[in-house]
Specification:
alpha/beta; globular; single chain; 30% helix
Length: 223
């Protein structure tokens, strides 16, 4: 399973993922613009796909289905819209049952939450996480104007640059330090909820990422 921009990387064709999860609203901005990130990702899926794959998209983007199909349509591709009503719950009582039955899901501050959740619902007995460092806090920087910046490091980006950390890109509104650490808190809380769901479903979630800051799942090597 892969997520987000992976179709733009050469590893996409090497690994030939069976599942692809997209969650960020940015993937539905500028679908009519060939130069937009959204258009490039869906077009890359269409152009590169030579094996059966399922694309999972949050239900709130159902209105973009025709545009996505136009860009990504392939006889090899199946598109599934999943219910994505995420709430910041602690995973107690009835909330776990609702999540297990896809009425709601753990609040997804990050696409990895959605990917693990989909993997659990698909019935895989073991889910291994690769490249889930979650060490963004180490790359935060508060500039001289008290604007929060981040060096956004990904494996596919050989020369990461310091960029504004925006919670509203259209209006150029920065996250505050309080905002960003609250977001990190909610994200790790969702992982704890996923861990509870995994136990109830008899699923092992193993974090195989060296030096990862996710502590909700067991850590393991690549053996």
């Amino acid at each position: 399973m892969c997520v987000n921009l992976f179709a733009l990387d050469s590893h996409f064709e090497f690994f030939m993922p069976r599942h692809y999860v997209i969650f960020d609203p940015l993937f539905f901005v500028g679908l009519d613009d060939p130069g937009s990130m959204a258009s490039k990702v869906f077009s890359a899926i269409r152009e590169k796909l030579s094996w059966p794959m399922t694309l999972y998209i949050p239900l709130r983007f159902k209105g973009y289905e025709a545009q996505v199909e136009k860009l990504a349509l392939s006889e090899k591709l199946q598109i599934i819209f999943f219910r994505d009503a995420g709430l910041p719950l602690d995973g107690a009582g009835i909330s776990l049952w609702l999540m297990e039955h896809q009425v709601i899901m753990p609040r997804a501050q990050n696409v990895l939450v959605a990917a693990i959740y989909v993997g659990i619902l698909l019935g895989y007995p073991r889910i291994c996480l690769e490249g889930a460092d979650h060490s963004w806090h180490k790359f935060l920087h508060l500039n001289s104007e008290n604007k929060l910046m981040i060096k956004d490091v990904h494996f596919y980006d050989g020369n990461p640059k310091m960029t504004p950390l925006l919670k509203d890109s259209e209006n150029r509104i920065h996250f505050s330090v309080e905002d960003i650490f609250r977001a990190y808190y909610l994200l790790h809380k969702s992982y704890k909820v996923l861990a509870r769901i995994a136990i109830r479903k008899n699923v092992r979630v193993i974090n195989r990422t060296p030096d990862s800051f996710i502590d909700a799942f067991e850590k393991g090597g690549r053996s």
